[in-house]
Amino acid sequence: MTEILVKDKDIVVPGELLAKGMDAFPGPGSYRDNEEILSSRLGLVYLDRRTIKIISQSGVYLPKVGDMIIGKVIDIAMSGWRINLNCAYSAMLSMKDATSDYINKGEDLSQYYDIGDYIACKITNVTSQKLVDVSMREPGLKKLVNGRMFNVNTHKVPRIIGKKGSMVTMIKNATGCRITVGQNGLIWIQGDTKNEFIAIETIKKIEKESHLTGLTNRIKEFLEEKTGKKIEGVEMK
Amino acid sequence: MSYKKRLDNRKPDELRKMEAKVGVIKNADGSAYFKIGNTCAYAAVYGPRELYPRFLHNPSKGILRCSYSMMPFSGSGNRVRPGQNRRAKEISMVTEKALLPVLNLDEYPNSVVDVFIELPQTEAGSRCAGICAASMALADAGLVMSDLVSAVSVGRVDDMLVVDLDYSEEAYEDGPVADIPLAILPRTDEITLLQMDGEITKEMLLDAIELGKKSCHEIYEIQKKALKEKYAVKGDE
Fold first, then answer.
1. Matching CATH topology for A3-56 and A148-227?
2. Residues B164-182: pLDDT tens digits?
3. B178-203 pLDDT, tens per residue?
4. Which of A82, A108, B177, B184 could form a disulfide with A75, with the two C-beta atoms 3.0–4.6 Å apart?
């Protein structure tokens, strides 16, 4: 007889009993000890039929293949660049993944990306030892010049982007800023100063209130109040 | 014999007043505060992050690094000296070993999780308060853990077995005293820290450990509550 002892969206702590019996399965963030399924993270319960997952709400970024991230060039090597990912591991951007230009042997790579530059790139490979490869050969991946860079909790990034990018599009339209959100929690914003500040304030608000219901509407009202303009085309729930 | 009633009128198995809070240090990846009687501990967790010096790298899993420190104004007596000393080094080491059995750092090779424990005010039982705060902070940092860790000091004053000794009991002079810091994993009652200062018989020691386990479960409930409170949905703020 299997009993699941938690509800969807419950908050659980590490070591907390989630279910008893062999018919439930431990998903990410939980583990089995004989008959029992226990939590191995602090987070929210997510029940997917008989699989129990724990979604973490805090912690540093861990590189994952396919993530679009913002990195900082920290070193230039013989045939590429070393990129800081805002986490425990750095990535390698090789010459052929960086640009479609022909680069001569022995050429000075700093004329493409110099130390301290920020770039938007995509993770193409992560090994078991967490050696990371990134690439920029995809539309939209570029060097980020001017603007402002700031940090948010990486677990809140999906809420900042919204369903199919709806949230970030709303902020872009309301403030007229260009915004790039990296999965690693770095965000780049460029626009005129006043609007940049409104965008940053809005994103900080999303980060703080992401777990409360009616987020889209509240953010819409907040943006309307700050910019003094009406926002069209956002569905009301 | 002469010690029939505790100096501060507590029952033998009564803990001092406790208080716990999570997320108290904004810059840290995870943080917690734990207060028991007049002893307060702050714990801040950073990482997993890049590990230097390089010779400490472990390619099979991440390492844990603890630092325990009593603040220079935290108490009285010759124990309190600012900075590192032999006592602080020992306690950092036992804290590390008390916490390591619950942590799973397999996902983070070659990196480090730093735990800083600072005590702004101390009156006995500081390493136990530090361990309680640190285990909450590690959970808050979103790390994979099989359980929390709860710790308390137990011991004897004259012929009485007591939990959570305060300074006046540690310094009791009219009979033998033993002070035993104890840390357990509340789910399985496994012991991860057991030290002893003073003199005690085998029978009394075994009884004292049983008493300590019971008190640790009380502390565990407080830790659990504090962790859940951080994410509790509190209407509109």
1. no
2. 999 989 989 888 999 999 9
3. 999 999 999 999 999 999 999 999 99
4. A82
Disruptive mutation site among A17, A44, A60, A207 for chain B (greatest number of B CBs within 10 Å): A60
The domain limits of chain A are 3-56, 68-144, 148-227
Distances (CA, A) of A58 to A220, B24, B230: 26, 14, 11
Q: What are residue B53's phi and psi, to 5 degrees?
A: -70, 155
Residue in the block written with tokens 């591991």: A89
CB contact under 8 A, B48 and A11: no
CATH topology for A148-227 is Ribosomal Protein S8; Chain: A, domain 1 (3.30.1370)
Write out pLDDT tens, residues B116-132: 999 999 998 999 999 99
Give yes or no for a cis peptide into B53 (omega within 30° of 0): yes
CB-based contact B110 A60, cutoff 8 Å:
no
Chain A nearest CA to B159, separation (Å): 36
What span, in angstroms and rounded, lies between the C-alpha atoms of B65 and B116? 8
The answer to whether ipTM exceeds 0.95 is no
Which of B:103-162 have CB within 8 Å of A?
104, 107-112, 139-148
CA distance A25 to chain B (A): 16
- CATH architecture entry for B18-226: 2-Layer Sandwich (3.30)
Contact A155 B29 (CB under 8 A): no
Architecture of domain A68-144: Beta Barrel (2.40)
> Which residues of chain A make contact with B51, given a CB cutoff of 8 A?
88
Measured distance CA(B128)–CA(B126) in Å, rounded: 5
CB contacts, 8 Å: A87 with chain B:
48-49
Cα B97-B100-B105 angle, rounded to 5 deg: 150
Query: Is B168's Cβ below 8 Å from some Cβ in A?
Result: no
With a cut of 80, say whether residue B78 has pLDDT above it.
no
In sequence order, what E strands does B9-94 have? 18-22, 30-36, 39-50, 63-70
Please report, for chain B, the start and end positions of each structural domain, with discontinuous segments joined by +: 18-226
A150-178 tens-digit pLDDT: 999 999 999 999 999 999 999 999 999 99
Q: Which CATH architecture has domain A3-56?
A: Beta Barrel (2.40)
Nearest residue of A to residue B232, measured between CA atoms: A11
